[in-house]
Amino acid sequence: MRGALSEPLVIDGAPVHVTATIGIAVDSEDTRTADHLLRRADVAVYSAERDGKGRHVLFEGPAHGRAVRQPPGLTAGVPPP
Fold first, then answer.
1. Between the CA atoms of 35, 39, 41 and 47, what dihedral angle is there, to the nearest 10 degrees?
2. Other CB atoms within 10 Å distance of the CB of residue 56
3. Radius of gyration of the chain from its Cα atoms, rounded to whole angstroms
4. Residue 76 above 50 pLDDT?
5. Left, alpha or beta for 9 (phi > 0: left; psi -120 to 50: alpha)?
6. What pLDDT does 62 receive?
7. How many Å apart are CA 36 and CA 39, to the nearest integer?
8. Could you tell me the residue ranges of all domains in the chain?
């Protein structure tokens, strides 16, 4: 995803640079509903936003109630928690 966003978009002839802040939540045995999973992704994205633009964060799990920053090289698949 970062690679796709690294190139500027051209809108009305003008280059526009875009970044993305991403919150990742992985379905697990304790995920009760889709809404629950989305709330976890929300926690992760807010954590990423606190650290600045263009970051991604994986929700660590309900026991910790927080998210952890992932290494910048994460590009494919997220290992299970």
1. 170
2. 21
3. 15
4. no
5. beta
6. 55
7. 5
8. 21-69
